[in-house]
Each structure stands twice: as structure tokens, then as C-alpha cells.
Hints:
Elements: E1 4-9, E2 35-40, H1 45-57, E3 64-70, E4 81-84, E5 87-90, H2 93-109, E6 116-118, E7 124-128, H3 158-173, E8 178-180, H4 193-206, E9 212-217, H5 221-224, H6 236-252, E10 258-261, H7 278-289, E11 295-299, H8 313-318, E12 329-334, E13 358-363, H9 379-386, H10 399-403, E14 414-418, H11 434-445, H12 451-463, H13 470-474, H14 477-502, H15 535-539, H16 565-570, H17 580-583, H18 598-622, H19 629-661, H20 676-684
Parallel strand pairs: 2-3, 3-5, 7-8, 7-14, 8-9, 9-10, 10-11, 11-12, 12-13, 13-14
Antiparallel strand pairs: 1-2, 4-5, 4-6
Helix pairs in contact: 1-2, 3-4, 6-7, 11-12, 12-14, 14-18, 18-19
Amino acid sequence: MRKLTPILFLLSAPVGLHAEDGHQLWLRQQKAVPVTVVAAAKNSAVLASARQELQQGWQGNSGATFTLTLKKDKAIKYDGYRISPNGVQASTEAGLLYGVFELLRRQQTGQTAQAGVSNPSYEYRLLNHWDNPDGSVERGYAGQSIFWRKDSSFVTTNRDKTRWREYARANASVGINGAVINNVNASPLILSAEYLARVKAVADELRPYGVKTYLAVKFSSPALLGGLKTSDPLDPAVVKWWQSKAKEIYQQIPDFGGFLVKASSEGQPGPQDYGRTHADGANMLADALKPYHGLVMWRAFVYSPTDKDRAKQAYNEFVPLDGKFRDNVIVQVKNGPVDFQPREPFSPLFGAMKKTSVMPEFQITQEYLGHSIDLAFLSTMWEECLQSDTNQAGPGSTVARCTDGSVYPQTHTAMAGVANTGLDRNCTGHDFAQANWYAFGRLAWNNQLKSAQIADEWLKLTFAGATGSAASATTSPDWNTNFLAPVKQLMLDSREAVVNYSMPLGLHHIMSATRGHYGPGPWWAPPKMRADWTPGYYHQANENGVGFDRTKAGSDAVSQYHEPLASQLNNPNTCPDEYLLWFHHLPWDFKMKSGNTLWNELCAHYDKGVQQARQFQRTWDQVQPYVDAERFAAVQNKLRSQSGNAVQWKDACLLYFQQFSHLPIPATVEPPMHTLEAVIADDMRPRR
């Protein structure tokens, strides 16, 4: 055992009250008291981070002694830890850091610091950044990239380093241990010497918080960057090029995590261009990374314009390859079979690949759920997916258990989230969008957590004491009753509200592409546009009804699910209402479980979503005494915009579908405020 050395840290003075801009996220500095830290004598950057966090945030007994112990323990897995009120034990230095953050979180939220072991559900817990070398962010709603910029692309400033350290600290506080720092639609330039030098600079700042750096790579890089005649994964020259590139990267970044690959999808090059399989492409890269213990995350997001049902293609391409991937390859699967919709059934790939490491991919950035304008707490969506039962190995074979190694042995386990971070002062564009970053990390660490607990934690960490003492706020009946309870309920209801006013009852992909997937567009179908990029492909509305027929009589996508789920989904009378129009094309007068016709039920959902959005406004207005002025006004303005957005969704969709149903909007539903023509004209108006 290493010799332990007592280290006493003097704590900073109490921070005075001031206006808040959200930049500190859920890590707002609190008044701390002195603590003596007894730690391993080994000097390292990660241990220094753990010590510093204790110094800045200790809320326990003044003058207490806290011990950080590095020691192997069979009960501790990966970067897990054993925690007690006065110490943390872990097998890795990162585990010590995570244990410190957990103890401080408990102190700050008023939870009892009970002893016990906490192990992460997944070995790798990563953010995927769709950031481009020119500083732009695909599906980014929080400003420019924190990693790249168009001007002075290769200059690293102190401001850059500060932002990267802040980012790494936020990730570590919720257990995120990896970051893919560029877009899956990758530029080959990312592997050039100039860009790799900047990658090294980023990695150096993330490392002290246990966050490894990864890169998304373009499959055709050997030809585009290396000057080869081909990028065929079985060509010896291509194999050698990737081996040399891997060696070059690891010489600069010894702890480099590996590659993320989007291939043979949406026009991106891949092994299928050369008559090879996804396994051929992934394995070639995996072999290049193997000597350095690197990982290949190979995305299963594939579809082509010729397939009659886009939702089926990933399953059809990947299930036949089960067991053919190297052990350092993990197949990355979006939560649903189409594309991060407000609600999708889980991807049938979960549990179907029994001999291959499979990881879920969620979208933290709100591409289809209102960008950085609408408030949507996505933890409820991810919890819904993770707890969905695949039945692949009998009842209880949830998506969570099928991906964390509980049901099928996996060499590696992981979860990825498409990040929502940018250079905006509050980092995510919407103060409440920070909760989705936080929730992703918490669920990646513990995939059994409930959204109510996550929301409770985040609100206490983010808003408690905004107008006074944080410690007293979390124990105040007044604050808990008048702020915490109503705002937590708002968060828990928010994603369902977005579903209600945008795409209820299994409708999906009916948004406007004119505004980057923001707002309604069931009519959107530009000339010569491929069908599966248009809403009509998905809603298939006509005078006979609405919905995509994926039953055995239709595209037969239901057969990709295991029984008894396949039969349940195949029957409209047993299919859950929330997935009804995903799997069925039904007549407008179809009788729902509620007793309503399908048309009236659709109208009721759209109207409910509008009323929910308006109630969110009222709830927030009532909590003004408990929120600092700057963040209160920012959220209030967003909620006003969301309320208007909800009305536009309702009016546009009901008026559009009414053209086919020829049925009146029920008297119980608020009449449209817009005409269909006006909404379409506004959608087609050029955007600046």
C-alpha cells in the first residue's frame, strides 16, 4: 500500500450573491468549510482534480479528514468506487474523482452520504460532438464549437484551454469519460498533422478530469488525405495507411480513445462502396487500433432511398453480421429505428445482436424537439427506451440489460449522447437544456435511475440558493413546495408535451426541413427530393386514413421485434397508443381505446400539448421569487416562444390532415389561430 500523506487545503471565501448567467451549470460554487485530505502520495493530474473539488466544495463537518484510497476490490468495476462519509476507495484515479463528485452532490442536495459501492452501467460513457473544423456545429443550437474555429484554426489560446477544462470538469461530475470532438460527417482533414496538433491540445486539457479524446473519421481518408487510389478496407496499402495513422496519433496522444465511424450512410463513403461489409470496414480499423487498446464505434445508422421502409434497414444489414466484428468494435445504435424522433419504439437491433458489443446512442441536442427554444427534459425519453423490454431472452430483457452486459456477454459496453454544447454563455443555448447533458451522464453511469430523481438533483444543484443560501434552500419547505415540486413536474411533463403538440400517437418525421427540423411541415416535399426525406413518406395521409403500415401485411417491420411484442404491435387493438401510427395506417374513424375516433383523439392530443405549454409558462411565472433575474427572464422568453410554437404545430397539422379526414375539429378543441396557407407561406419564407 502506498504511503498516505495528509494534505490540508484552505478553502475559498464565501461567494457573494450576484446575477447568474448559467455558465457554471450544475457546478455553482457554494460556501465550503475546511477539510483535511489524506491521499496517495502519487502525484497525478486526476488526483489533483479530486483534491481541488474537495477543496472548493466540501459541505461536511468543518475540519473533517477525508481519505482517497487507490486499492483493488472485486466489488468495484471499471471506474466505480466505494464511498463513505469520510472517504472514497477506487481501483482507478478516475474512480476517486467520480466518488468525490458523488459525495459532494449528496452534500449539496441534502442526501445522506451512506456507505456503499457505485459501479457504472457502461465502461465507456461518451459525448459525440457534431462539430466541424470551421467551427460550425451540425444540429448545434448553442453557438459555435468549443473545439474548432474558422479563424486562426490551429492557435490554442488560454481562453480555449479554460473552456476545455470547464467542459471536462462538467463531464467528470456526472461520470462522462470520453468525447468525440468532431462531426460524424467527418472531414478527412481532421487526420492531418495540423488538426492532430489541436486534438492533442484538447486532449491535454481533458485528461486531468479523466476524459479521453476520440475522433470521428471519414472512411475514404486514405484516398482523400493519403493520396491512395482506393480506400478498400481489404487493400494492403489501405491497411498500412491506417496502421501508420494510428501510430502517428498515439505518439502524440498516448491515451487516445479511438474512432467513431459513420459509413455507407447518407452519402458518406464506406466499405460497401468496394463490395465489402460493415464488419470488413470496422475490423480493418480495429486491427489498426488494437496495439494501443483503441476502440472502434461503428454507427448502425444506415438507410438508402431504395428501401421501402427506412426503419428496417439497419436490422437487415447488421444482424447477419452478428459475431463477425473484432472484440474492440462496438456497434453504435440510435435509440429508435429511424432518427431521434420525439417518440420512437426502441431499435430492434437491441438484443438481436447476441454476439456483438452494442451501444445505445441518444441525442442530447434537440434536433427534433424544439432546438434550444422548447423546454424538453429528455431523461424521460431515454428512461423509456432503456426500460423497454425486448423479450430477446425472456421477460426482463430490457434495452438497458441487453446493452450493459447483463443479458449477453459484451467485451465492451458503452453509451453515447450527441452533445448540445457550444460557445453560448450558458453552454447549451437554453438553461434547461443543461439538464439533458446532466441526465445523460447520470443515466450512462446508472441506467436504472429514475428521471424524477435526476430532475430533483439537477434543480437543487442548479437553482437552489439562486436568491439566497443553497444549503438552506434545499431544506426549506417553502422552496421545496413553491419551486422544486412544480418545476420538477414541469420537467417530467415536458417531453410528453412536445410529443403531444408535434407528433402524437406514433406520427414521426413530419417536421419542416426548411427550418432545420424546427416547426411543422407535413406538406414538405420539394421537387425531386428523395421520398424518405419527406414527411409524406412517413405519415402517408390520405382519405382512407393516416400512418405507416409496418404490420405483417405492410412492410413487416414488426417481425424484427421478438415475440410476444411483435404480435402485440401487429394488432392495432393491442398496439400501445403512443406507437399506433408508427405501425399502422388506420381510418380516421378508427375507434381508440379511449372511445374517441382516431381523428378526435389526434385533435385532443394536439390541443393538450398547447395547454401544457401554456401551463409551463404559468408555472415558471409563479416561481419568479426563487430564481435570479437573468435566468428567470431567459427561460420566460423561451417558454413564450415555445407556447407560440405549440399553437403553430397544432394548427398546421390539424388543418393539413383535415384536408384528408374531411372531419370537423371537435368543439372541445381550441379553434385554429392560423390558416394552413399562412403557416405554409411562413415556412417557405427565406430564413436569414
